[in-house]
Amino acid sequence: MSERTGQVEGPIRVLLADDQHLVRTGFRVILEVEDDIEVVGEAADGERAVSMARATRPDVVLMDVQMPVLDGLAATGRITAECGPDGPAVLVLTTFDRDDYLFAALRAGASGFLLKNGTPEDLIDAVRVVARGDGLIAPALTRRVIAAFAQPGGLGRRPAGPPPAALTQREYEVLELLARGGSNAEIATALHLGEATVKTHVSRVLAKLGLRDRVQAVIFAYEQGIVQPGG
Question: Residue 50 to residues 17, 22, 80, 131, 142: CA-CA distances in angstroms?
């Protein structure tokens, strides 16, 4: 597996975690049609998902929220804590459009959150997005996330890491634009840089702040007051 902000070498290795066999089969059929995606295992409960994530070293874990033994949110927290920054990106999927699930998934370290009523193309795109180190939240949920950041205390627990003063001025500018939703191409245009240079800056920002991916960088920026909703 490559760094979370880099490209995965070879096919994207995916672990499926869902307590419904038919759902796992459907995900496998959708994903394995793609030449650049490989399903490396299936787990029917959260505890099994954690152990298989350690054993199979996937690039992405597709994680259902409601599962037996250990729920998907707790399993996400275990995986991100035990596997560290170079561990798999967790993409949480659920049929329940609930804010508490969304915010709990982000606090647990998930790199993306999708509703199961999306299309197969949505799922395939999401796997590719989180595998290359970009965070992903379904567009319909983005406004609610920003509103939550505006509330006192934001999403709660801050990601561990040194203060923003650890960043250079250029890295600080990259973090600010990233937190406003800028893609690498958009950040490059705004700062008159090449995309490869922006990727390097993003990698350094994540490393210096001890963050897993761009989703955590956005949370960090809002909680630290680097950007303000609507600003």
Answer: 9, 21, 10, 18, 28
Say which residue the tokens 């796992």 belong to.
Answer: 24
33-42, 65-74, 90-99 — which is least confidently predicted?
90-99
Please, are residues 105 and 73 in contact by the beta-carbon 8 Å criterion?
yes
Residue 102 lies in a domain: yes
Range of the domain at 176: 164-223
Q: 64: domain CATH number?
A: 3.40.50.2300
User: Is 142 within the bounds of a domain?
Assistant: no
Tokens coding 199 = 């990727």
Least confident span in 4-13, 74-83, 86-95: 4-13
Do both 121 and 22 map to the same domain?
A: yes
Residue 82 CB neighbour total at 10 angstroms? 11
CA–CA distance, 42 with 200 (Å, rounded to integer): 34
Q: What is the pTM of this model?
A: 0.70
**Average pLDDT of span 131-139:** 68
Question: Residue 130: how many CA atoms within 13 Å on its side-chain side?
Answer: 32
